[in-house]
Amino acid sequence: MGTIDNRPGAVRPLALLTAALVLALNPAAVVNAAGARTSFTNFSLAATPPSPVGTTCPGGGSACTNGAAEPMIRAGADGSFYASSENGLGGGTLAWKSTSGGHDFATLSSPNNLSATQDTGFAPGGGDTDLAVAPARNASGNYNVYVASLTLADIDVSTSKDNGASWSLNPIGAIVPGDDREWIAADGASKVCVSYHDIATFNIEVNCSFDAGSTFTQLGEAFDAAHAWLADSNSTGNLAIDPASHIVYQTFSGPKDAPGTVACGGFACLNVVYVAVSTDGGKTFTDYPVYINPNQNVAYGHQFTNVSVDSAGNVYSVFSDNHNVSYAWSSDHGQTWSAPRQVNKSPSATAIMPWSVAGSAGKIDIVWYGTSYYDGVNPPDGYPSSAAWYVYFAQSLNATSDRASFSQVAATPIIHYGGVCLSGIGCTGNRDLYDDFGVAVSPLTGLASIVYSDDQYRNDANNAPADGCTPARSNTGRCDHTAIATQTSGKGIL
């Protein structure tokens, strides 16, 4: 990708001058050196209830509202997008499906609320939702869809074998009860794994099912024998499985040295990004450092370290230090890593909560919540009300090159003003953006669809305010909702 040469007297190609003009007129669009404009359309989604199953947004007007947050999105091999979001612990989850490349989404029945009759003694989930789609077809010719959500007592895993038309619920998806921050990943036609923090020991457990989530029979631990001490101090990230090699990757952050060597514990000294790698399907793992920051006071446990895999088996680690988003890549299944490179650039002086999706060899999309505010002193939860946050989208088509470059665009209008707390349930500041969001790409076009949180009042037929969300309540939890940004032009990563 090209960059504009701003040196005095520089001769600027017409395509690059056009890029500058487009950016001046439209901050949610970028033009690369080839003249391809990258732009997005944004809209809100409907909740069930009160809207009926099948309500399609945009186009549903006032029905296209919800009060959910902390969403996730994945794409199936048939080109369908699936998204989920949470109503909060005990409140269950919402789910949506798009068969139009992300240009509209129809509501599905709630994965766990409507199957709660199968839930014997456990409340419906609704915390920390995550979603996965199987990479191979089941016996009926469909791709299984899995939605995981947290109950704290255990993990709800809801499975649809009919493209989201119906769900079955396993309310005890974790062999070890008492859990926090679960992730889910699928492999083959019917293998699905969840990872989570065991609250009692703070181990990161990886449970796998071989019958589409009906039973979870295999238990592994992300910390190998040489790193067992990491249970005393770590912050988890997502789980990913390479569909070609079937290698399982679990990312997390932690300290460089065992407790006692440094004054660490809990969420302190998380200055190392790790990836735990399993070559035996999740039974055992070996831990490899991605990046060791020499500054012990830098922490990468700020919701969350992220791992993704491209079609050539290259592995990408994406992480934020509360200021910048960086990435590193590995061509040997996570054993060794490139030096990290910063992804975000002006106007995103602060970049938090990154997520990535990889495509063809060397191609990757990365999203984050970003603002132009940065004072070098205060963490994001102390930012002033003038700090305006957007969803940023960056793309590289040569991410494994020594000369890797990224385009960058604001994919949304302003979604929040002010502070953003990154301490999870320990937050005392504003938590309207919660802890994470996601991006996926269509396997048919390579174009992206992003699901994100937004707490702004909008007088917009495609992004209608929910009941009780008024102009006076904009930028509060009362206006919190899950929305979509779908790429309408520009390059894809396939």
What does this structure look like?
It is a single chain. 2% of the residues lie in helices and 37% in strands. The protein contains one helix and 31 strands. The longest helix is centred in the first third of the chain and has 12 residues, at 14-25. The model is unreliable at 1-35 and 114-123 (pLDDT under 50). It is an all-beta fold.
Distance between the termini: 16 Å
What's the CATH architecture? 6 Propeller
Q: What proportion strand?
A: 35-45%
Query: What overall geometry do the principal axes of the alpha carbons give?
Result: globular
Kindly give the count of domains. 1
The strand order across the widest sheet is: 1-2-31-30-29
Q: Low-confidence stretches at least 5 residues in length (pLDDT < 50)?
A: 1-35, 114-123
- Indicate the radius of gyration in whole angstroms: 21 Å
Mean pLDDT: 88
Q: Class by helix and strand content?
A: mainly beta
Biggest sheet overview: 5 strands, antiparallel
CATH topology group: Neuraminidase
Number of distinct helices: 1
CATH class: Mainly Beta
Instruction: List how many beta strands DSSP finds.
Output: 31
State the helicity in percent bands: under 10%
Summary tags:
31 strands; 5-stranded antiparallel sheet; Neuraminidase; mainly beta
What's the SSE blueprint?
Layout: H1 14-25, E1 29-31, E2 37-44, E3 56-57, E4 69-75, E5 81-86, E6 93-98, E7 105-107, E8 127-133, E9 145-150, E10 155-160, E11 168-170, E12 179-187, E13 191-198, E14 204-209, E15 218-221, E16 235-241, E17 248-254, E18 272-278, E19 286-292, E20 306-309, E21 315-320, E22 325-330, E23 341-342, E24 350-358, E25 364-371, E26 388-396, E27 407-410, E28 416-417, E29 438-441, E30 448-454, E31 481-489
Antiparallel strand pairs: 1-2, 2-31, 3-7, 4-5, 5-6, 6-7, 8-9, 9-10, 10-11, 12-13, 13-14, 14-15, 16-17, 17-18, 18-19, 20-21, 21-22, 22-23, 24-25, 25-26, 26-27, 26-28, 29-30, 30-31
